[in-house]
Amino acid sequence: MNDFQERFNQANKKEHPVETQWHYPIMIAHGYKPLDLVGIGFVRAYRYQNEQGHIITCRTGVNADYWIDQSGAEGYGGTLKKHLESL
Second label for 43, Cα 20 to 30 Å away, from 10, 18, 29, 67? Predict the structure, then answer.
């Protein structure tokens, strides 16, 4: 394996705590708790659940930050707060 590929593979193993992600303060402020405390790699998914059992998954990574609601609604990071306020 070449040096670039080895460095790439190593970097893709990096752990990212949920508290350091763009969606964490937004989700916490709206009463959701993270089900996934750590994401690994360049592209990660973190699930959140509220007291009623509603789940929203937030994804972050190389080129896009977006969310997917269990209802089927979805959007880019900038629309998450507005979506939560509409629930």
Answer: 29
The number of beta carbons lying within 10 Å of the beta carbon of residue 60 is 19
- Look up residue 34 and give its two tokens: 């993270």
List CB contacts of 39: < 8 A, sequence separation 6 or more: 15, 16, 18, 21, 45, 46, 60
C-alpha R_g of the chain:
15
Q: Which amino acid is at 84?
A: L
Segment 10-32 shows an average pLDDT of 96
Task: Give the tokens for residue 54.
Answer: 């509603």
Model pLDDT, residue 63: 78
Range of the domain at 58: 3-86
Residue type, position 71, single letter: S
Tokens standing for residue 16:
């990212």
C-alpha–C-alpha distance, residues 43 and 41, integer Å: 6
